[in-house]
Write a structure and sequence with these properties.
The chain is α/β, with parallel strands linked by helices. Helices cover 26% and strands 18% of the residues. The chain has one domain: NAD(P)-binding Rossmann-like Domain (Rossmann fold, 3-Layer(aba) Sandwich), CATH 3.40.50.720.
């Protein structure tokens, strides 16, 4: 997903070193490796996960935290939680102008994307693509030329073996050699800012 992070910094019109990037779900297998990879290129990396006991400053500009309030400092937010609804409690802390990269499964529900966009942020789907590749019919909630990371992981392991999972760099290199690259794309079902599509909010 490092390539998608570079794309996000380009959309913001900034060099990666000037971008604060957050990874939600950063203590997981993929999240922890993404944090390590991003810390080599980006300004501050905010590693957010409820499983951290307390906030602490790590090496290479990584800030580990369990506090959603720290998302307010992020220009780009990668969401790697198992379910799209896991982000609901984080929405009030997303800063206007931020780019939110949705890498949840299968994706953030539409009502949450609406709420995020109402805050002035942009929500895009983090996917992997190969211009030679088409799924017919498309994977549900994905465009025909995109696949989720879990499927790419299987393809890479089948081709190169499990040793490519030892580091994010090795996996990225293997995926690129197979022709796949990360990108940000609009959701197939674009969020509609229509109040009747939102669940009732608590008073």
């Amino acid at each position: 997903m490092t390539g998608a992070a570079r794309e996000a910094s380009s959309l913001l019109g900034r060099e990666p070193t000037k971008v604060n990037i957050a990874v939600v779900g950063s203590k997981g297998f993929i999240g922890s490796r993404l944090v390590s990879s991003l810390s080599n290129e980006f300004g501050t990396v905010i590693a957010l996960d409820s499983r951290y006991d307390e906030a602490c400053q790590g090496e290479h500009g990584v800030f580990f935290t369990n506090s959603p309030e720290d998302l307010g400092e992020a220009d780009v937010i990668f969401v790697l939680t198992p379910r799209g609804t896991d982000v609901e409690s984080l929405v009030p802390h997303i800063a206007p102008g931020a780019i939110v990269a949705d890498d949840t499964h299968p994706e953030m529900p539409e009502y949450l994307r609406v709420r995020i966009e109402e805050r002035g942020a942009t929500v895009l789907k983090a996917t992997l693509a190969d211009e030679r590749f088409r799924c017919v019919p498309p994977i549900p909630d994905f465009r025909a030329d995109d696949i989720p990371g879990c499927i790419l992981e299987v393809l890479v392991i089948l081709q190169r073996g499990t040793e490519v999972l030892e580091s994010q760099e090795a996996f990225n290199r293997a995926a690129q050699e197979l022709g796949f690259g990360a990108r940000l794309a609009p959701h197939r079902n674009r969020a509609k800012r229509s109040p009747d599509r939102l669940p009732p909010r608590e008073a």
